[in-house]
Amino acid sequence: MGRKQFNMAKTKIRKAVFPAAGLGTRFLPATKAIPKEMLPVVDKPIIQYGVEEAIAAGCDQIIIVTGRGKTVIEDHFDISVELERQLESRGKLDLLAMARQISNLGRVAYIRQKEAMGLGHAVLMARDLVGDEPFAVILPDDVIDATPPCLQQMVSVFDEVQSSILATQVVEGPAISSYGVIDAKPTARNPRIMEVKALVEKPKLKDAPSKNAIIGRYILTPRIFELLETTPLGAGGELQLTDGIRGLLEHEKVYGYSFEGTRYDAGDKLGFLKATVEFALKREDLGDEFRAWLQGLSPLKS
Ligand code: UTP
């Protein structure tokens, strides 16, 4: 059926694409001049959580799709000679190690998306850098707390199925209309792995084929690029990744994967606040004091 069968023994997910060229309108005014991807959850920019997740899953090439006003993302993953020199001379060796660890996080390449024409278009920009191999896509504003990390779980599924995989979570009620939604059948070997029959972008609640919403982690075969080239603009006048994946279904199997863990939509104000509180509570250096402070908050007592 598929054009290409990937060799189980050989195929490794080495490359992770991070679409980061969106305008972040849900987080205005903060995102007028600061990329959404650089907003910190506690003290780490949200995109760094995603990059660390990709590295933990075995990816060693990070491809970030950027746009105008996003150069601080490049600076963040680069060496900061001035900062390192100052931390060294002041004997702040822990902070120095942290700064160095960030600039050593794998090989990072950047490609520009000149206009925010949609997620599918952003992924298409990475075509030449990805080449002819399966790859991961991580949406940096989906911050996921999971053990093992979400992409690592998906790479294990890929080792089994050697096909495209979409991470999903159950979304109740009208909120489903903000997502791509799959119509899928759980496989006998693992009900978390579902064979996708159809998918629809941002359906009305009454039209949603299930409660399984696609979230910001994908493993895709390179055929997606050919399909995105010819996919017409979809919802919102944008080139939708979901529409390209629907094309994939005509050629290859695509699986949904209900990952184990908690996902926060940190590109949304409420999701960002939830992530901040949960991550802060888990921090060894902050958690106890922060919990005590939260418990004492008078608005929570009323
Ligand atoms: P979102 O829809 O969450 O991002 O896209 P957005 O458009 O920046 O945000 P809002 O809705 O206006 O607040 C998910 C990811 O895809 C990237 C975004 O940067 C984000 O990380 N994206 C989206 C692109 O890279 N290019 C696009 O054209 C659209």
CATH topology: Spore Coat Polysaccharide Biosynthesis Protein SpsA, Chain A
Number of helices: 12
- Shape, principal axes of CA atoms: globular
Q: Estimate the mean pLDDT confidence.
A: 93
Strand order of the largest sheet: 5-4-1-6-11-8-12-10-9
Overall structural domain count: 1
Count of strand segments: 13
The helix/strand order is: EEEHEHHHEHHEEHEEEEHHEEHHH
Radius of gyration: 20 Å
State the CATH superfamily name: Spore Coat Polysaccharide Biosynthesis Protein SpsA, Chain A
| Uncertain parts | none
The CATH architecture term is: Alpha-Beta Complex
Keywords:
single chain; 302 residues; alpha/beta; Spore Coat Polysaccharide Biosynthesis Protein SpsA, Chain A; nine-stranded mixed β-sheet; two-stranded antiparallel sheet; 12 helices; 13 strands; globular; binds uridine 5'-triphosphate
Structure description:
The protein has 302 residues and is an alpha/beta fold. The protein has one domain: Alpha-Beta Complex (Spore Coat Polysaccharide Biosynthesis Protein SpsA, Chain A), CATH 3.90.550.10. The protein is 34% helix and 23% strand. The protein is built from twelve helices and 13 strands. The strands form three sheets. A nine-stranded mixed beta sheet has the order 5-4-1-6-11-8-12-10-9. It has a two-stranded antiparallel sheet with strand order 2-3. A two-stranded antiparallel ribbon has the order 7-13. α3 packs antiparallel against α4 and α8 crosses α9 (241-248). It is globular. The N and C termini lie far apart (62 Å). The mean pLDDT is 93. Uridine 5'-triphosphate binds at residues 19-27, 36, 65, 113, 116-119, 121-122, 139-141, 267.
